[in-house]
Amino acid sequence: MASPSTSASSQNEKTVWASIQPFVFGGLAGMLQQQVIQPVDMVKVRLQLVGEGAHVTSRPSPFKVAYSLIKSNGFSSLYTGLSAGLARQATYTTARMGIFNSLMAEMQKRENGTVTMAQRAAAGLAAGALGAVVGNPCDLALIRMQADGLRPAAERRNYKSVVDAMVTIAREEGVLAWWKGSAPTVARAMALNLGMLSTFSEAKSRIEPHLGKGTLATQLSASAFAGFFASFFSLPFDFVKTRMQKQTPDAVTGKLPYRGSLDCAVKVVTREGPLAFYRGFATYYVRIAPHAMITLLIADALNSLAKKI
Questions:
Q1: What is the pLDDT of residues 84-94, one digit of tens each?
Q2: In the predicted model, is pLDDT for residue 305 greater than 80?
Q3: Where is mean pLDDT largest: 54-58, 169-173, 193-197?
Q4: Rounded CA separation 189/91 (Å)
């Protein structure tokens, strides 16, 4: 028979694990999906940076961009910045998934299992904002690594890893530069979470009565809805975020191309047209939809497995 102290210790361990489980599973799911999505993310970033500052009528297709990358630097070039992508998932996705699921669990306790769409949305917005602040340094390193190949050969940094990129940025621009572009990053994360986590949670609750609780059909249907709305809501913010994080001071004048997120958005509309914000939507959806589906399916599978153990 277990002693009272042993039982109390075991109970404390279960409580601690229950608190950190959403964060651990969210981070693992994010890191696994990043390895699948990285090539699409690389092409998406290159598409957003093509023709920067110019109004052009013809732009390369995602397939042409991918072919050009492979032809110039080999297939492995599609995985440029993978270390930064994994680090980003380990910080950003761990935080946003963990915070969202923790908030949802708390609201379900208080509301006797019934959570409204407005409450889901609030949880998604809060989790997205906090997660983005935590993950911005790694996100910035990822963009810099992926955009480095667009610079003239003499100006390339040739980052070796996410650590090398972050150290270089801190040394040349200061530690606070790690949070460059954080405003559009936070806005993008809030829009992404609103479309992804909130929509997935709501869609799943509405689909379950028809396709069954916990079935693959329910999971795939709900995540497909989540992927579309996450893409639609977040792409404009993602576009500005990419431009802001890619910018570096002019070698001659020392000035940055954009003074801030709003200035960037205005210049894009003026020079490239408002539809530029949705440039590469198909590629972005192909990136976000599997991202949403894989992340949510893995997280749900891990949660189900944990309940059985």
A1: 999 999 999 89
A2: no
A3: 169-173
A4: 13
Q: CA torsion sign, 84 to 33 to 247 to 241?
A: negative
- Give the residue among 298, 295, 292, 285 at the shortest CA–CA distance from 41: 285
pLDDT score for 9: 63
Q: Give the whole-angstrom CA distance, residue 184 versus residue 214.
A: 35
Distances (CA, A) of 119 to 122, 213, 219: 5, 21, 21
Integer Cα distance of 16 and 61 in angstroms: 49
Q: Are the C-beta atoms of 196 and 131 separated by less than 8 Å?
A: no
Q: What is the pLDDT of residue 134?
A: 93
Measured at the alpha carbon of residue 18, what is the angle toward residues 196 and 130, in degrees to the nearest 5?
A: 40
pLDDT of residue 15: 74
Is the Cβ–Cβ distance between 129 and 186 less than 8 Å?
yes
Give the residue among 30, 180, 169, 19 at the shortest CA–CA distance from 92: 30
Q: Note every long-range contact of 165-173, with CB atoms under 8 Å and residues 24 or more positions apart, other chains counting.
A: 165/84, 165/141, 166/137, 166/138, 166/141, 169/140, 169/141, 169/144, 173/248
Sign of CA dihedral 212, 216, 220, 223: positive
Average pLDDT, the chain: 85
Question: Does the structure show a pLDDT above 90 at 166?
Answer: yes
Going by the DSSP 8-state scheme, the letter that residue 213 receives in this structure is T
34 CB burial (10 A radius; 0-12, 13-18, 19+): buried
